[in-house]
Records
---
Amino acid sequence: MTNALYGEMLTKIEAQISHLDFPESPKNLYDPIRYIMSLGGKRVRPVLALMGCQLYGAPYSKALPQAMAIELFHNFTLMHDDVMDSADVRRALPTVHIKWNHNIALLSGDAMMVMAYRHLFNCETSISQSLGGLFSKTAIEVCEGQQLDMDYAIQADVTIEQYLEMIRLKTAVLLSGSLKIGAVVGGADPKKLDLIDQFAEAVGLAFQVKDDFLDAFGGEEFGKATGGDIIEGKRTWLTLKSLAVADAKTRVELMEAFDVKEPTERVSRVLAIYKRLRIDELAEAEVKKYSMQAKEALDQIQGEARAKEALEWLVDQLIGRRT
Amino acid sequence: MTNALYGEMLTKIEAQISHLDFPESPKNLYDPIRYIMSLGGKRVRPVLALMGCQLYGAPYSKALPQAMAIELFHNFTLMHDDVMDSADVRRALPTVHIKWNHNIALLSGDAMMVMAYRHLFNCETSISQSLGGLFSKTAIEVCEGQQLDMDYAIQADVTIEQYLEMIRLKTAVLLSGSLKIGAVVGGADPKKLDLIDQFAEAVGLAFQVKDDFLDAFGGEEFGKATGGDIIEGKRTWLTLKSLAVADAKTRVELMEAFDVKEPTERVSRVLAIYKRLRIDELAEAEVKKYSMQAKEALDQIQGEARAKEALEWLVDQLIGRRT
C-alpha cells in the first residue's frame, strides 16, 4: 500500500531531476553528475523537504528547488564516499571513479556541492540566509559523521554511544535538515524546529539500527542476502551491543567468530552468538524506542494533516510496522 | 616599497585567520584545515575582497567574514588540486594528502567549502542571496577551469584561445569574484559590476601570461630557477603561441626540443626556439595589452581613492611595472 501524497511528490521530484539543466561542457565535469543523479533511489530526502514545506501550510512545490539542493548534496556525498570507501558499484552500476577516474569523481563532487547551494538560493530573499545557515550546518555535520566513520573503522575500541553519535551525524542530521529546510520554505520560524529535529533524528537512528538488524536477521524472513556486514567485518550496532553486554569469555568467542576465514561459517557463528545474547531482541527494542520518540515528537507538531499522515507512512516504510 | 592600506589589510586578514574557530573534533577533519590555512601566502584574494568593500565607501573590515570565506574556498581548491595533481609539497611543506592521506584531504576539503559558505553568510540578510549567487557562480567556474586544465593536459591539440579561457576560469574569475563579493558587502549593486569583471579578469590573464614568461625568461634577470614548465613538459602560453606562429618546420623542431631527455639541454633548446620566434616579446606585449585593459576599466570605476590606489599598486605587484 502506498501513500498518495508521497507518490505525487516522488513523481514531481523525478520530473524535476530529469529537467536539471547542466551545461554540456566540460563533459568530464557534468556527465558524472548527470550519471549519478539518474541512478534513481527512493529520494527520501527531497521528499522530506517537500513534506516539511506542506507541513507548514505552503504548497509543497514551493520547496522543489531546495529538494533539488538536498538531492544534489546527498549524491555529492555518495560520489565522494564511494571514492573514500573504494566502492566499485552503486545501484548495480559502476561508481563514478570506476566509470571515469578518481580525479573526475573528486572534482564533479565538488561541483555538485556548489550546484546544491545554487538551487538552495532559489527562494525568497528573506529566507536565503536561514536556508544557507541550516544547509551548511547540516553539511558540515555530515562531513564530521563520515570522518568519524573512517576513524572508527581503524580504532580498536568504539563505544555504542560513539557509534550512535556517528550515525546521527552521518545519516540522521540530513533527514532532519531536509525536513527543516522544507519547513522554513513553508513559512516555519527557523528557531522553532526542535520538534522536527527530535522527530527526524529519532527516525534516522531507528532506521540505522533496523538496517543493521535486517542485514543480520532479515534474510530469514525476506530472503534478503544475510550477513553482508559480518562478511565485511563491519562493526554495527549489533556488534557493539554484543561487546557491551557479553561477559569476557563470550567477547573473546565473538572476536574469534569474526576471525573465521570461511564466510558462511563466519556468519553462522557470529549470528549464533548474537542470538544467545538476545541481541536481535535488544535491537528490536531499540528500534521501537526510537520509533516511539519519533511518533511522540510528530504528534506534538501542529502541521497540515495530509503532510503529517504522509510522514507517518514514510516512517513506517523506513522502520517497518512490525517492530 | 609597499602600500600602507594593503599592509593594514594583510595584518587584519592574518589576525582573522589565526582566530578562525575550528572544532577540536574530529581531529582528522579539522587539523588539515588548520594546517593549510596556516601555510601563509600573499592572501591576494581576501585582500581584494576588502578592497572591493572600501572601493564602495564602506569600512573594509565589514567584509572580513567574506574575505575568510574566499580564503577558505581558495585553500579548499588547493587541497583538492594537490590531490589531483599528485603534488607532494606546498610552500616547502608536505601537502595534506602526504601528511595525512588522500581520504582525509578529500573530506577536509569538502568541509572547508561548507565552512566558506558559513562565513559568507555572516552578512546583512538583504545581501545574503546576492553573495550566495556570486560566490557559487565563481566556485563552479573555478571547478570548470580545473577540469579543462586536466582535460587539456592529455589533449593533443589545444588552442591559445582554449588555454586563455581555461586560465580565465581557473584563476581570473576568483580574483574577480573576490572583488565583487567585497563590493556587494560595501554597498555596490550586484548588477553593476561589469567594470570590476573587466578589470579583474584582465589582471588574471596578465598575471598568468607573465607567470609563464617569468618561468622561462625570468631567470636571466632575477636569478630565479629557469624553465620549470619546460622541464615538466607543461604547455603554457609560450608553447601555444609558438605553435600558432611557427612554420611547419619550426613546429617539428619545437616538439623535438621538448622530447630531449636531458633537462638543461631541453630548456636551452626550447628557449632558443622561443627567442627565434620572438615569443618573449609577444608575451610582454600580451601582458601589456591586458594591463592596459585592466587600467582602463579601473579608471572608469568611481571608487574611494585610497582603495583605487591600493588596487593599482597590487596590480603592479602582480604583473610588474616593467612590462
---
Amino acid sequence: MNTSMNYSKAEDWYIEEEKFDSSWLGKCEAIMCLGNGYLGLRSATEEEYLNEKRGYFVAGTFNKFDDREVTELPNIADIINLQMIINGCCFTLDKGTIKKYSRKLNLRTGELSRCIVWISPKGDELAIEFYRVVSMADLHLIAQKVIITPINSNISLKIISGINGRITNSGSQHLSDGDKRLYEQKYMQLVQTTGESQIDFVHNTSLSFMIDNETCELESRIIIERRKIYMEYEMDVPQGIPLVIQKISNVYTSREPDNADIGLKKLQEKSLSLLKNAVAHGYDRIAYDSATEWGKKVWDKTPIKITAEDEFDQLSIRFAQYHLAIMVPSHDNRMSIGAKGLSGEGYKGHTFWDTDIFVLPYFIFTDPQLAKQLEQYRYLSLNGARAKALSNGFSGAQFPWESAWLDDGEVTPVWGAADIITGEPTKIWSGFIEQHITSDVSYGIWQYYKVTDDQKFMDQYGYEVIFDTANFWVSRLEFSEEDGLYHINNVVGPDEYKEHADDNAYTNYMAYWNIKKAMEYYQYLKEERTSIFNKLLNSLDLDASYEMWVDRADKIYLPVPREEDLVIPQDKYYLTYKEIDLTNYKSQTQVDTIFLDYNIEQINHIQVSKQADIMMLFLCLEDMFSYEVKKANWDYYEPRTLHDSSLSLSSHCILANDLGDYDKAYDLFRKAAGIDLGTNMKSSDSGIHAASIGGIWQCIVYGFGGVRMINGKLRIEPKLPKTWSDLEFPIIWHGQKLIIKINKNRLQIENITKEAEVEVTIYGKSYHIDDRLEVDLPEGCQL
Amino acid sequence: MNTSMNYSKAEDWYIEEEKFDSSWLGKCEAIMCLGNGYLGLRSATEEEYLNEKRGYFVAGTFNKFDDREVTELPNIADIINLQMIINGCCFTLDKGTIKKYSRKLNLRTGELSRCIVWISPKGDELAIEFYRVVSMADLHLIAQKVIITPINSNISLKIISGINGRITNSGSQHLSDGDKRLYEQKYMQLVQTTGESQIDFVHNTSLSFMIDNETCELESRIIIERRKIYMEYEMDVPQGIPLVIQKISNVYTSREPDNADIGLKKLQEKSLSLLKNAVAHGYDRIAYDSATEWGKKVWDKTPIKITAEDEFDQLSIRFAQYHLAIMVPSHDNRMSIGAKGLSGEGYKGHTFWDTDIFVLPYFIFTDPQLAKQLEQYRYLSLNGARAKALSNGFSGAQFPWESAWLDDGEVTPVWGAADIITGEPTKIWSGFIEQHITSDVSYGIWQYYKVTDDQKFMDQYGYEVIFDTANFWVSRLEFSEEDGLYHINNVVGPDEYKEHADDNAYTNYMAYWNIKKAMEYYQYLKEERTSIFNKLLNSLDLDASYEMWVDRADKIYLPVPREEDLVIPQDKYYLTYKEIDLTNYKSQTQVDTIFLDYNIEQINHIQVSKQADIMMLFLCLEDMFSYEVKKANWDYYEPRTLHDSSLSLSSHCILANDLGDYDKAYDLFRKAAGIDLGTNMKSSDSGIHAASIGGIWQCIVYGFGGVRMINGKLRIEPKLPKTWSDLEFPIIWHGQKLIIKINKNRLQIENITKEAEVEVTIYGKSYHIDDRLEVDLPEGCQL
C-alpha cells in the first residue's frame, strides 16, 4: 500500500501524487487519465517503465483480433513517449536521486503536470517539468510541453520521440503496420488500420524547441523501424537555461462520419494540415482553449459545491464529473460509455447496464442532450438486440449484456479467470443469461423521458424500445403447470455470485415493470397519439404483442416478503443456501478474496452476494416497497454482501440514507469514492470504474440531496452528512434548470430557466416553483 | 561501448559477461542464445528489463500477420520468466547493489549460467545462481535451475513464474490467445495457434523446489490472465540455506510430422505427459544428457584446434560451431537456416544466399547428411521457385531472394527504413531483382556434390535444380542488337549499394556458369545415365532446354578486365560513378554510417560498395581468374568497400590470404569474428549473423587452412597467421574423414575413415592419401 497519493490540498481541484514508485504505475495512469469522449489517453509517463500500461483509445473504433476473441477497443499507437538522454544517462526515476517530485491532475483545466528535480546517476542535477493536455476544444488534439533546466552543469541532451505502433491490447494486436512518413523534416505520420473492422487511424506529431525564449532548430535524425517512426534530436543546454520542448499530436480515423468516405490519402493530408495549424498555435494556446471549454462544458454548467469538514468530499464529486466528461462520446450517438470509460483495456470498451443505471442519471439530470445521445445509441443497437433474441429463440429485442458497435449484438467474452479447484478457465455466463440488461435499457429510457419530458424522443425512439423489450420478456417467460405462473429461470441477476438463479427478484420485477410500462404506453398511444401508434402497429405487430402482454404480465411470479421477517428471497434458493463466516472477505481492502478459498461453483451455493441485488430493485422501483420491507431486507442482505463489484457501494449508500442510517451512508459514500481515489494502488490498473463514478454523483444528488424521480414526479428529500454544512448543485427537470441549495436546516430551489413551473414533492408536500422556493427541513433531517 | 565482455579466459570454452548493464541487453541475448535447430531461445534473463528483447522461435513455423506483411517466424510465448520478490523487493539488477556478477555461456555443454551476489534496496544480501539449458538431446525441452541463498538474514520469498503469451514480433501478434490450463496444481499449459498458417503450439511448464536437499511443496496460487498463465509461490528461506528452484518446460507444435494429424487435444495430452517425464528427470540429468549430445554431435565429431597467441581465435571458431549447431534444423528437411539463425526477429527467419554460399560449406565438409537436408530444402522449394519465375514472365525455376516455407515463393518485404532525404520508406529491390540467388542455389548443390560425391542426391534432386535454374537464366537474358550479346540488366548484385545495375559481373558470370554446368550434366546424363536422363527429359522438356542453353551460353556478355589496369567493372556503370572520400565511413565501428549523409539513390551513383561483389566471383569461380586480375581488383575495390554487410569480411579475409597479404587476412578474420563477438554492443540485437559465423569457419579452413574444392578437386594450401603455431581440423571428402594438422612448416593429412583413397593437390603437386600424408610447406608458407 502506498500512502503518497494526496487528495486533501486546500485547493481542491487537484489530485496529486507526491511520491513516485514504479511498482504502482497503473493507479495514476487511470485516475489521472486525460480525454474528451472522443479519445482517452492514460497518463503514462513520457519516459518508459517496465510495469507501465500505456493506453490510448478512440471511442467506437472496435475491432476483433481473431475469431476466438470478442471485439474490443484497440489500444492504438503511443504518441506521448519522449525519452531524454542527459550526458549519456537515460532519464528514469528508477535510477539517480529524486530531490523533488509532484504529479498533479488539475480537474478544472484537464491539465496533467509533473514537476521534478532529479539528479542523474552521473551527478547532473536537473529541474524537469512536464505538462500535457488532451484538448476539450479540439477532440483530436494532444499537446505536451516539457521544460528541462540543467541546475549544476551544462548538459549534452539527446531527445528521442515519435510514434510507436507496437502497443497491443495485452498482447493482441489489432492494427496493421501502416505507412510511416516524415514531412518537411518535421512532421511525423503513422497510419494504422484495424484488421477486421478496417478502420484507418492517422497519427501525426511534431516536436519543436525553444531555448532562452527563442525557437531553435536542433540537429535531427529520422528513425523508421517496424511500427515505429521517431526523431532523434541533439543539443547542448547550458547550465541554468531552460529548454522548452513542445510535442503536438493528433489522431483522426475513418470512423468519423466526415472521414468515412474521403479515403486514406485525403485523411492523411487533412490530418497533417490540421496538425500544422495546431503546431502554429503551440502548447499554451491549446491548453488555454481546452481549459475554457472545460469551463463551458462542465464546471460553469454543472457546478456542485460541497462544504464539508473533509475537502476530499468536494474533490470526489469533481473527480467524478471530470471522468464523466472524458468518458462520454458527446460527438457521436453511434457509441456509448465503456465500463472503464476510455481509461484502460478493462472490459474491452464495452457498454454494460452500468451506463443505463449508474452513469446515465448524471447526464439525464445535467445534460439532457448528451443523455439523449446515449439513449439513441441503444435505439440504434436494436437490430443487434433483435438478432440476439432471435438467435436465442426469443421474440422482440434482447439487449446484449456487453455491447460494442451497433450491430455487433452480444460481445461478452465466454471465458474468464482460472477456477482455483480445477485449474480450468471459468465460463462467463453473463452474455448468455444475465438478462436484466434488457429491462435496464427500457428503464433508462423511461427515466430519461420522465425527467426531461422529451416527448419527441419517445415518439421517434423510446416507445419502440419499450415495446420490443416487452416482446422479448413475454417470449422469455417460462410457464409452470405447478403454480400456473410464469417464471424466469436460469439467470444471473445483478449479484454475479449466483450464476444459475431461478426467479431472481430483480429480474422478475423489472421484466414485469417493462411489460406493464409497454401496456401503459400502448393504451396511451392508441388513445391519444394515433399516428405514432399506427406507425408502430405495423412494424411491431402491436396488437398481437399487446395481447401477449395482457395475458402474461399479471401471471409473472413476483417473490414477496416472507411473513416471518419480510425478507424477499433474492432468488428461489438463495435463502436455503448454507451460511459461512464472511468476516475475512468483508473486511478486506481487496475484492474477490473469497475466490482464494472457494470456486464459483461453491460460491453459487453460499448465502453470499457480490453486490447490490434486491437493493437495486428498491432503488429502481422504490414506490413498490414499504420502508419496513426495505429495512428488513437491508438488515438481511447487507451483511451477506461483499461489495466485490464497484456497482454496490453507491447503491447501498443511497439506501442507507433512505433508511435513516446516516453514518453508514456517509461511510459507504467515502468507500464508493475510494474505489478509484482510495489507497488501493492496484484497483484502477485496468481503468477507472465508470459505474462507481456515476454512483458518486448519485450518492450526493440521489442520496444526500434526496433528489429522485418517482413514478414520473420530482421528489426532493435531502439529508446531509453530519460533516457537511452546505450542498449546492443544479439539476434540469423538464427543461428547467434548478439550482438546489441545502444547508443545515433549509432547502432552497431556484428555477433559473424560468420558462415553466416545476412541480416538486418535499417530504410529502407538493410545491410549484416558477422562481424560487425555500423550505425548512423537517426536524429529523436537520443537522 | 561496453568493455565488460570477456572472451579471453584461460579456459576458452566460455563467453563471459563480467559486468551487467541493462542498456546493452541485446548483445548477450543473441550471442549467448540457446537452441538446438528445432527451437531457438534468446538468453533474456529470468527477471524482466525495459529494453530486453525476449525471443523464442520454433524453426519452420512461419506465419503472416496480415496481407501487408510477409511471413515470418513467430516469436512465441515466453516461458523462462521467473520473478523473485524478496521481502517485498522485486529482484532486478537495475536496483540495489551488485557485489558479484558473472554471466557465462559454456559452448561445450550449451549451458548458460549467471552467478550473482546482490544486495536488495532493503539491505538483504543474496547469492543467486541461474542455470539454463535448451536440450540438445530432446529438442523440445528447456530446463532452468535457480539457487537462491540468503546471506545476511532470513527472507520471505515470493516467486511468480509461468507462461506469457503476450510476446509479439515487434508489435505484430501471430498467435491466438488459446487454452490455458493447470493440471494437478502443478503443470501449467498454454496453447497458441498462428493466425494464418494455423500451426498449434502447446507450451508446458512446471516448477519444483528443494530446500536443504529436500523437495518441498510451497503454498501456491494460480493466476490466469489474458494470454498468461502463472503460479505464485510463497515461502520463508532461512539465512544461509539455499533454495533450489527448477523450472522444466517444453514446446510441441503441429508443424512436426508426428503431430500434424493427431489433433490439438492429443498434442496437449502428449506434450504434458512428456513434460512429466522430464520433470521426473530434473535439471541436472537433462543438462547432462544435453552436454553428452553436444559432444557427440559437434565437439567430438568436428574438433577444431587453434594454437595461437590469442585464445580469442580458438574461442571464435568454437563460438561459430556452437551457433552453427543451434541454427541448423537437423530434424526436418522442410526448413533451412535463417539469416539470424533462431536468435532473433531479424530478417524474419528467412533463408537467403547466406545459407548456400556462406554457411553450407561448413556442413558440406563436416556433416554431409545435414548439408544434404539443406539442399533437399531447396529442391522441395522448387515449386515456389517455378511459380516465381512464371509470375515474372520467365521459364524454369527462379529461387526467391528470401525464402520461408516451401511453397511460399518470394517473401522479401517490399519496404525498408526511411529515406533521409524524402522521409519516405525506401523500396527493397532485392526480392524483385537480386537474382543471383538462383545460381547460388545451383552452386551450393554442385559444391555439395563435388565434395561429398553423393551421386544419389544428384540423381534424385540435384540435376533437376541445375537444369531448371539454367532454364530460368536463358529466359532471363536480354539480347542486345548493338553487340549481338545477351545481357542481364537491372539487377542487384551481391553489392546492395548498387540497386539497378546492368551486367553485374558476379550475376553474369554465375548465370553463365549455371547454364554451362547444365549443359555439361545434360551431356553426361544423355551419354552415361539414360534412365535418369529420360526421367528428366519429359518433365523438364530437356532437349528444347538444351538447345536454348547451347544457343545462348556463349553469347552472354562477361565483363573482362580493362586493359590498362586489369580492373573488371563490377557493373556497366560502376567505374564511371563519382568517387568520394570514404574515410569516415570505413573507419567507423558502426555500419551504414554513409546513410547519415547520402540516401540510397545517391549511393547508387557513387563508387562505393557495401560488400564483397567481384571478390565473391573470385571465390566461387577462382580458377577462371589469374592472380594478377584478382590482385588488381582487390587493390581497386577493397578501398571502395565499406564492409557494411556481414557477408564481406570473411570473403575478403580468404582472398587477402590467397593474394599473400597475410597480416590483412588475419586482421579481417578478427574483424569478421568481431561482428558478433566484438565490442559493438548493438550489432547483434536482432540476432547473430549466420553468414558471418559460417564465414569464421571459412576463414580458418578455406583461408588459413587453404582447403578448397576447385573444379571438383580437393586442394590444400595452408598459410597460418603469424601468431598461430598449430591448426588442426577434420574435413570429410568423398566420405573419407581427413584430419588435417598444420604447424609452422608442415602439413599432415590423416584419412581416418580409410575406406577409399583421397586425391589432393598441395601447392601444385597431386597426392593420393589412403592413410596418412605429411609434406613440408613451401618456404613462403612457413612461419
